[in-house]
Amino acid sequence: MGPVHMNEVECSGFEKSITECFFNKDSLGCSHEEDAGVRCNVPAMGFQERLRLSGGRNPFEGRVEVLAERNGSLVWGTVCSEGWGTMEAMVVCRQLGLGFANHAFQETWYWPGEVNADRVVMSGVRCSGTEMSLSHCLHHGEHLDCPKGGARFAAGVSCSETAPDLVLNPQIVEHTTYLEDRPMLMLQCAYEENCLATTASQVPADSYRRLLRFSSQIHNNGQHYHSMEVFTNYDLLSLNGTKVAEGHKASFCLEDSECDEGIEKRYECANFGEQGITVGCWDTYRHDIDCQWVDITDVKPGDYIFQVVINPNYEVAESDYTNNVVKCRCRYDGHRIWMYSCHI
What we know:
Layout: E1 7-10, E2 22-24, E3 51-55, E4 61-70, E5 73-79, H1 86-95, E6 100-105, E7 120-122, E8 156-160, E9 166-168, H2 170-176, E10 178-183, H3 188-192, E11 208-213, E12 216-220, E13 232-237, E14 243-249, E15 258-259, E16 281-285, E17 293-295, E18 302-310, E19 325-332, E20 337-343
Parallel strand pairs: 5-7
Antiparallel strand pairs: 1-2, 3-4, 4-5, 4-8, 6-8, 9-12, 10-11, 11-17, 12-16, 13-14, 13-18, 15-16, 18-19, 19-20
């Protein structure tokens, strides 16, 4: 389903991500009949024996309890929920073989858990989301710091065997980019929605803003997906990664714009219909709708990196976050703009 993003892939075997391998992004001559697949062998590392979920309504949810060494003996205890989020929940679900994170909970008073495991034994947990075990994440070690305690505020998770997987189409971004000089008189609503640079508040009403416009196409290759407050961030970065301009898009309307052959559209926004993206379908944000831009009025001519990030705050769990970012090389001469080498 969806476009072919990688062709003629060659890996050494030591890469941390398949996107680090050599590949040809041109999909000519490559069809879905040649889609690659793998069969994985997960070694028995015993990670699941040092972690458990307790108090939930089913085996896929509950308060997170960890087996830790304290005073020379192994004891079960809770994880401090301060800063606990989707990335940490992803690792817990993976470690227990329960699939993907559905939600991360910072309060678990409704899941009593084991009475002898109320003591906090782990705090300051920060995960990238790719770790095999919660113990592999950054944490405070023996010097715990959990001001709220671990009873009511112990960390919890709910897991799911399946999850959405949103994937951007980099070619759409590359092929639809252009500049528009738009008068402030036509941008009042966009200004109130914070879709313009901060300097827009200091200019006369008869001035113009230069907008970098483009379309974005988001495919759902996993489970059905619903909307959220902050859906996409658009950033123009200097070559050293410094942000020089930015935009954002709330998912005010998610629907099935188009679907792969044989898949029927299910969600549409017309007449207050239910929102979402069906598996095998995609939603297209056209270049000509409000806020589908970056205000580059104050940007100097030069070479830049243009970046589009879906689900930037990890508000909704996905099976894979590594394909949520598209980066393009960008050249701006003060009058025209070129977008090239867009990739995930």
